[in-house]
Structure formats: structure tokens, C-alpha cells
Protein 1
Amino acid sequence: MPVPARGPDGSPGPAPAGPPAVAGDPTHLLLRTTYGLSRQLVEDVTATGPTAWLEQQLDPAGIPDAACDELVSRFRWLDASAAQVRAGVNVGSWDAMSELTQAALARACWSKRQLFEVMVDFWGNHLNVTCPSSEVWDVRAVDDRDVYRRHALGRFSDLLVASATSPSMLRYLNNDSSTKTAPNENYGRELLELHTVGVGAGYSETEVRHSALALTGLTVDDATGTFRYRSGWHHVGPLSVLGWSSANTSEDGGLEVATSYLRYLAAHPLTARRIAHKLAVRFVSDSPPTALVDRLAATYLAGDTQLKPVLRQLFASPEFAASAGQKTRRPVEDLTAVVRGLGIEVPLPKDGVVGMLHWMSYERGQPMLGWHPPNGFPDVAAAWQGAGTTVMMWRQQLSLAGSWWPKNLRHPGLASLLPDPRPTTNGGLVDALSQRLLNRTLPGDERAAVLGFLGPESSRPSDEIFDWQLPWLVALLFGTPSWSRR
Amino acid sequence: MTAPGTTLSSTAGDGDPCGCPGREFTRRTVLRGAGIAGLTGLLSSGLSTQLAFASGPTTGNDVLVVLSLRGGFDGLSAIAPIGDPGYAAARPTLAVPENRALKLDDTFGLHPSLAPLKPFWDAGTFGAVQAVGHPDRSRSHFAAMEELERAAPGTSLRTGWLDRVIGLAGNGSPLQAVTVGSGTSALALAGPAPDVAMRSLDDFSMDTDNLAHRKRLTALRAMHAGRPGAAGIALTALDRAAEVRSSTPAGTGYPTSGEGQELGSALRDLARIIKTPGSTLQAACVDFGDWDMHENLGTVDQGRMTRQLAGLGAALAAFATDLGPHHLSRVCLVTLSEFGRRVQQNGSAGTDHGSANTVLLLGGGVIGGKVHGVWPGLAPSALDRGDLANRTDYRDVLGELLRVRCGVPNLSSVFPGFQPNPIGVARP
């Protein structure tokens, strides 16, 4: 498998003066930077301290991840070129895309490079190319590898240029058929609206047209499924968009013109604010403080769109420390947190578990990589209030706790969540389970509701609890308001 | 690794090659399903949610069904202006041929893929409004959709218009407003008034057949009661959904394959809720996306548009048939889309984002058998920057139906700053 990229200049490390100290409680950092707590994770951060742990996570290539690497290596097409996919599957087959969606979920559950996977997902949503969608059947996995995974912790400017020359994006937003005589505005518009400066930037319809014209010629070679610059399709003549301009005098120079336009947009102050705001929504709160966004945007610009300095600053900020409990788990984050919290291990080959977990993400209304519009899954709690999703999550939490479906889960058994010797009171049992699953005790009202399931606080848990009711009890912990927050 | 994880996305595909060579693959990507809500943070609106449902004997309690044709519906293909000389001129390879359309009047013909709806047109329960638009002209899917569903331009309101309707006129039941076919509520329902989103009726249930199931449910009720958020509403709605399932069998006749399958399933569930004795349903949202056909739109005989319209026609006709005259008489279904397509076809045998559009109407509460609105024509001089000119605001259509059929007499807080003008779409 490809090793996650280091910085664009190859440098893995922290700034010479040492990274800023992570602010706040280590559990808070884990909840925000991972797909869910596990016993190992809590032990790791306790051993190293949060600042050093974050530095490790920011250098994913330095984190051994053999079990997940092995799991991912079972997929046939993740590492393949477009030509290999085309040669190996039927035309239009969804096999490679299906593998990618499953691999994404598997990595979220089992990779030790958790922050890296969170950021891959973040950019995959920011520069969304719905997977599966039929026009990217042969190139979507290439996109994942060469765009999001290569640049997830690098420089946004490089990420944007990689995306603009990715066959996947070019087909998804129709730039592959956009020519000087018949320009297609789809990509030129979304580049401004979604990928960079944002819809409020004040560009005109003429500038949208210029945006599309600047990108004419960036297309896909039909024979190979690789990027191709077709100079004969490139519009020639002066262009200007939001302060960028080019005389654009030759067909042969069109790729350079497009690249200069993309790099200009990446380093635009409005792009800086949008990226900073979006990162703050991901990691701090649904309505992040303006002062924090301003500081992150300034760091983004000062660092020539480098992302690691922005993340270091974010996790060291007082606003981050003050935001514990303010984010709500989205359906996929709940799913992965349940898998990780239960200690379910990397599946065995050919047992179908990853495919079934992916089906679960679909049923809860958040199919991994499957958001249809080009703007990516929403990242605020208000978007995920559906009663249907809530009910489906409750059903699945029980099914996973009981190890009933998916079949073949390598589930360590719920007794493994309990201390030895077992708690002797109902109150002790609730506290032990919440300590294990949430790394803290529940607030009083939630604890009381769980005790409603068990019986009086100081009584001995009934035999039925340990005999057969543990799945429902554990699922009830997953149903608490405290669990739903991260 | 195979099933069920391979049936990732519900519309067609499902791993099967479409059989077309090279670049002819259909796009199934854009603007479907999984909930458009949450494009922005949804702040509490401060609107009062008084329960003032004005019930009436025969009018005033219709169910308003909003079918969102996401991606930019091409009304010029559906209700084709075959009698307008500008049509064939602007769309040399994409126009519905005059001899293939089902003639509706001197100007318009129905796309042949919508033929299953023609009997309802003739019966007066299926109709259309042409040249309907809204103030947003960004041509951006997201900005336009958000504005369409917020329906409060020039204000800072962050609620959806249908949420405000339910806040004003809702009956307070958890099944007063539903989104069917998606676990996430439509943006039009975003806001404080309770509503339920369900992927399907059958999925919307919890087991209760042993003691532990029941104890867990009791504890969930205890910990979520009185809290904001989905869980409390979900718990009550579960009970109502169980009543629907036990009292009313699922209808038949819906498409079981093709582009209309998913829409058909959603409408089948919706009809089941409507048909349930004592139903409290007042408003419903269903999505049917994938209309963003920038390239290779096809012809009336093959291609994306004809397949997509066939799915729409089959599912809607099955819905109307399943409801039957009694229940159909108190339903008003309207289609909305963020924008129409540009009149002139583009260089990729598709159409780009346009402006004014067609609204389709279905139900006993609407006056069908007629193309409503004012037709501005497709002569180049009649176009608005290349688009069909906007002659009727979509809030005129919705406002009239809300006032006449749905018991919402005062629309000033539903559509702030806008005074809807009746155009004759609601059956008095």
C-alpha cells in the first residue's frame, strides 16, 4: 500500500522550536481527531501526552499500521492504475469503487493513522466526487490515492492542483468535455463556489465563464483514463477572475495558465477563511468562534497553504479546549466509534464484514463517500436530526453489541468490557461500562436512566444481566446523549 | 466482498455495467436523496410554533406533498412547448418531436415517457404550471436550493418554509410532517417544528418482543424525554409508525426496477401513511434527483431524460392509483426544482443551468388538465439571459394551495415579504 505522504517538501517534522502544547483534556483531543475511542488509544495518549501524540498523528508515515495495511492490501484495485482497472473488470463495473468505499470505512475503524484518515475524509468531502458514480468507475480509486491521500496533510495549493488534474474530478464536474467552442461551466463554477473562495465572494457570471475558460483543455484521455491537456481545446485570450488575470496568449501555455489560476485561488484570503472555517467546524464547533477562524486563516496564508501549522494551532487554541462536547457524531462516526469501542478486531479475509459495515453506513443515511451533491456531507448537528437515522442507529448499535449482524464479527465478547472482578452493584456496573466506553462517568440523569434498566443503584446486578442482557445494556450506553457527542 | 455492501447507491447501477461504450455512462451522481439539509447551520428562528390548525370539512386539511426534482429539472422536456417555434430551434437534437408528444393544448405536449400520467391529466387531477421561477439567480445548485427551501429572501431566517407552515398550522402529531426515502429531513422542513425523516416505513421500527428490548426502550425514553433533538421525536413517531403498519397494507403497482424504483418505494410508504385511518399527516417531502444533465440527455427513444421521466411518470401514476379517488381528493402534490435548464442546448448534447421552470401538480386539490401560468415564449427576444423568463413565482403556486387547500390563511410568516397572487391552481 502507498505510504501516506509526508509534507510536500518531504519534511515530516515539527517546527524547530517544538510544537505548541495541545490544549484541554486528552480525551477531548481523541474524540475530535479519531473515529472513536479504543482502549489502546487511551493508553497511547496517556503514555505520550497529547502534544507528542498529535505530532505522531501528523506524521502518519511514521506510525506502524501493519494490521490495517494487511486488511487494505486484500483489495484488488486500490493500488491499480486506471489502465489496470479497465483491463481487469467489465466496462462500467462498480467493483473498484465498491472496494474504495469499503476500504475507507475499514481504515476509519482500524487504522492507527486516525487523524490522517479523518483528514482524507475531510478533503474527500471538500472536493467531493461521489463514490460510486458511474462516470468514475475506473478512476475514482486513483483519485483517492493521488489527490486526497497524497496531500491530506500537505499543502492545499498542491491538493487543489492535483484535484483539477484528476480524471475523476474532471469527469464528475464535466470539465473533460469543456472546450473553447462549447465551454461547460460546471467545474469552473464549483471550483469557485465550493472548492475555494465560496459563493459569497462576489464573482460575476462573466467571471464564472472566465473560470471555465481558464480550465478548458484539462481533460481525460479516453483511451487510458489518465489526465490529458488538450491544447487545441484551450480558449486563448485575456481572462480575469477575482483579481487574477492572464493574457493567456497561446494554446500551448494553457496548462500553465490554469495552474496559475488554481494556485492563485488556493492562496486567496477568502479561500483561507473558508478552509479555516471548515476545519474549525470539523474540529471545534458547528459555529466556531470568528477569532479562531481569523487566526487559522492567517496561519494558512503565512504558511503558503500548508495544513499542518493550521492544525497545530487549532488543537493548541483555547477555543478548542473550551469546546468539549460541542460536536455531535455523524452516523458514520457513531458506527466506527461503536466498532472501536467494542474492540472488534480486523476482519478475516473473505468474511464479508467490511461490506456489511458499509451497508450499515448506507442504512443510517451516510454511505461512506456516497454524498451525491459536489459539496460533501454536512458537518453540523442540525443536518443529522432525522428520526429515521436515529432509529436505525439504535437498531445497529444493538446488533453490533450483540454480535448478531454482521456475521463473522471478531467481537471479543462484552465481558471483555467489564473489570475483573465484576462490579458488585448496578451503580458500579454503569460506571465501569461508561468509564470503558466513554472514558468518563455519565451525568446524573443519564446514569439514572441506565439504572432504570438495571435496578436499584446499590443492589447486586441480577444474573439475567450477565447471562443474556449485556447487549441491551451496552447498546443503551451507545444510546445516551453523552455517547452521541464527540 | 459482495452483497449487501455492493448495493451502495440505490438508483440502478448496483454494480451492473450499463453496457454503453466509452464515455456514454449515465451520471447518477448529482443531487439525490441523502438529505440536503444542513448546508448551513440552522439557527433557531424565534418563530412561534403555535398550534392553530384550522380544520375544515372538505378543504383546509389537504396533505401537501413536495416532490423535489433535484439537480435542475428540465421542464421543457417534460411539458414540451412543441407549438413554440423557438423550441426546436434552440434544441436541434434534444427537443421532443411534435409527432411524439402527447398533445395537451396548442402549445404544449407531454413527453411520451410521462404517458402513464395522461389519464390523470384528462381526469383533471394532473396539471402543470409553466415559467415558474424564484428570486435566486446564482445558477448554483446549492444556493438556489437553499433559497428555494428557505423561501425567505432578504431575511436572516434559517428555517424552511414548510417548517414554518407546520409551526403555524401543524396538529402537533409527530407524523404531521415526514420526509420519506431519506433518513434526513428536507431543508424545507428544517427548523423547530417536529417532523420525521424515514428511509422507509419498514425500517422505522424497534423490536419489543423481549423484556430487554422493552427495558431498553423505556430507558431511552427516560433519558431523551424533554431534550431537544431527534431522539425524543423518534420515540413517539415509532409508535405512530407502528400503527400505520398494523392498520394499512402497502399498496401495489409501483415500479420495481429502473429509475422510478426508489421514488416508487417512497411514494408507496407515503400513500400508506395517508391512507391510515385517522392519519395526522399534513405535509410530506420526497426527493427524486439526478436531473443535472449537462451532457448526453438523449432522445425520446433512449437516454437519460427519457428513462428518468419514465421513472417519474410510473411512480406518480402508481401513487395516484394507490391512493384512489377518496384519498387523492385531499392530496396536493407539487414538484419543485432549484432551477430549470437553459433553453439552448449546450455543446455536450445536454443543457446547462437555467432559470424558470415547470411545476407539476397532482391530486384532487389541484386543478389539472391544464397548463397554468403565463407563457413568455422562446423567441430569442423573449428570453431572459438565455433562459425561459420567470412569469410566476413558485410561492404563488404554494401560497394558493396552502391557503385554499391546507388551512393556512395567513402566509406572511411563511413567505415573509411576499404576497402570493392566486393563479387558479387550487380547486376551490
Protein 2
Amino acid sequence: MNFLYAAYAATWLIHIGYLVTLARRYARLRGKIRELAKR
Amino acid sequence: MKRAFPILAVLTAALLSYALYEALVVAPTDAMQGDVYRIIYYHVPSAWTMFVFFIVNFVASVVYLVRRSAKADAVAVAAAEVGVVFCSVVLVTGPLWARPVWGIWWTWDVRLTSTLVLWLIYVSYLMLRRFAGGGQMPVLAAALAVFGALDMPLVYFSIWFFRTQHPQPVVGGGGSIDPRMLHVWLLNWLAFLCFGGLVFWSRYRLEVLQQEVDEAEALQSLLEPRGAR
């Protein structure tokens, strides 16, 4: 059972980790867009 | 799509939760492996979803090489990234299933090794896109993607053509599976496809936005007076 839970947990850790990097990149890009609009 | 996205996200979350419940509670226990076999409901749908995104990457790369379309390039990079995420899931859940069933974490047989090589090819593709500069980068990346895709048939058919530790397919390979297990399996695949589709869409939008920002920056630097920089 431990292996089963480990596999399911690892799957969601990988997906959530990727979603966090996507959110960060979106935030960085929005900052860049704001900067561009200011110029 | 922008307006429908939150609704689709909620529906996908509900589908994933229902599929998880079916996988852990409703699906019958395997007579040989016990409960650990339930890893199949994450391992195999992730592998199939990975193939879908790598095929999308291949088609988009060919379109880019033929038409030099920026949108095809954005589709290619988004599909490669989401494909790598699903491939990572396959490479992590596989050993976690192999250890209790085979008694080993890993073996260098054709299926496992070619899957690892596939992951390395697409990680190289993403690194090339991230670190190489210049106008030829998307062309080089697309060419790498086209040749990298050659590994996909090897991964898929390796268990037919070679003697491997990895089991033969029970779906579409002459094996048999309990219909209740097959139902949960397909349900999980549908859930992961929907989830992958939404993540892909977000990544694609990010890439298109990035292309627009890069263009605006290049234009602005051309229009700015020399002393202003």
C-alpha cells in the first residue's frame, strides 16, 4: 500500500510543481507587460 | 476558451477526483498483485497522455518547418513541456510499481531504457529552446523534435519485438482485463487527458504572450532614441 500511495503522491507532486512554475512564469510575464506599458 | 477555462477546470477537478475514487475504492483488487496494481490507473494513462502530447509536438514541429508559423512553434513547445511532465510521472510511478512486483526498482530493458531516452530527448529539446539564442533556434528545435519522435515507436512496440521485463499490454495486445478495471482505467485516462489539455492550453497561451512581449520589446528598442537606452 505504501508504494501505491507513494506513486499517487509523486504524480500529484510532479503536476503541482509544474503548475507552480507555470504560475510563476505568468506572473513574471505580467510584470514585463506592465513595464512595457509604462515606457 | 478564456471564459470557459474556469468552468472546464472545475469539471476536470471533479472528474479527476471521481477517477481517483474509482481507482482506489471501486476497482476490484488484483488477485496476484493485491492493491499495489492500482498504480496502473496513474502509470498507464500518464504514458498514453505523454504519447498524445509528443505526437502533437511532432505534428506541430513538421508544420513549423514547412510554414514557419509562430503558432505551430508555440503548440510544439507547449506540447513538449506537458509531455515531459507526463513522461516524468511514468518514470517515477514505474519503479514504484516495479519494486514490490518485480523486486527491483529498475532494469535496463528496451521498454524502460527507450522511455528514459525519450524523456532525455525532450528535456534536451526544452533545454535547447531555453538556452540557445538566435533566429535559427526554433528551426533547430523543430528538427530535433522530428528526429526525437523516432524514439516513440521504439518505446511503444518494444514489448512486442523484444523480450522485456515489462509486461505485455493487456489492452490492444491480446491480453485480457476485467471490464470493471478497464472502465476505471479509461476513466482515469479521460481525466488525465482533460487535465493535460487544460495545462497545455495554459502553456500555449503563455508562449503566445511571450512571443508578443518579445516582439513589442524588439520594436520598442528600435523606436527608442539612441541616448534613451
